[in-house]
Each structure stands twice: as C-alpha cells, then as structure tokens.
Amino acid sequence: MKKPIRSTAVVLGAAAAAFGMAVAPASAVPSTVWTVTPSPANFTATNSGNIVLTANIPMTCTTSGASGTMQSANGNPATVASINAVNFGSSSSPCTSVLGNVTTVATPPWTVVAVDYNGGVTTGYIGNVQATVTAGACVFTVTGKASATYTNSSGILAVNSVSGDLSVATASAGCGTVVTTSTKPTFKGNYAVKVTGTSTIPTIVGSNP
Description:
- By secondary structure, the chain is an all-beta fold.
- The protein has one domain (about 5-200).
- The protein contains one helix and 17 strands.
- About 50% of the residues are buried.
C-alpha cells in the first residue's frame, strides 16, 4: 500500500535497508567469506538525519525505516541481508518536494550486497531496488541499485548512490520534462541498524581464508 514520504528516492533506495555507504579504500584481495554477527538474525534500520532522493528535484523524508533478515555468506559479491520492508514518511510527517507530498511504494525484497571490506567498513550496494514514486501529479518507477557502505563501529548503513546506479523505468505524462526515462535519480541518507528488539549493533567482517 502507498505510504507518504518526503523523498521518492528514499523509498528507492532504499531504503531501505539497512546498510551504509561511505567511500572506503579497496582491500588488496577481495573478500570471499562474509561473517555476519549475529547470524541469522532479524534487523531494523531507522534513518539518522534526512533521507533525500533527487530526480532532477529533491524529495526529502525526515522519517524512514526498514527491516529484514541478515546472515553470513560466501562469494564476491555476496548477499548478506534481505530488506523485506521499507517505509518513508508518516501521516504526521510526510515526505515532501516542490511538487507536493511524496508517496513511495516499494517492491521488496531488496538485497544488501557486500563487495569489499577494509578496516571495519563493508562497501557494496542495495540491490534489486524497485519503487513507484508519486509527487503531486508526477508518477514514476525507479529501478536499479544504490551504492552503500556499512560501518561496524557505528552500525550506520550509509546509502550514497551515484548517477547511473538508479534509473527511471517509467514516467507518467504528469511529470512533463521534469522526470523522464532519461533521468538518473540519486538516493542518499544514513540508517542506524540494530538487531530487532535490542540495542545490539550487528557486524559484517569480510575475509579471504
């Protein structure tokens, strides 16, 4: 069902998840064993600061969250978590844009994919992103991935997608020339991740035995 959100990008991307994105130096040898602690486990993620999706215009959400499951994995890239639910905004604090309030409907599951590990920071992306965003009369669908990093010491999943990660699959006539299938959305924001029902910060460690 549709939920209002300030950032159409927030839904996308989102989201969702939650694992952060910050630029970290690449390790000498790519990790192939990913140890998630605890594993398996359920997690929740709550936004830390605003979540912003930009599709030529910024869409901002002051409230966002996600939940799912996480587990250890092998391979590179490797899926270390599944985001089974994403929400943006609330009835009292909807996501907004210059086109009006923003509603985003995500199509989960999204995935959390690990690619590199260095100094307690896992670099990767939120995959399988798909969401329909409505801002005023403009309706469009976003698909793709969102680059991200997860930092063990803080439990912050930093989503920091770059142009080309996400694309607009469809856009309605109500979007005019503001949002078209040539638009390259970006999704940025931090999520604090905890093991569901606890204050425990999960960790992800990459290695190459």
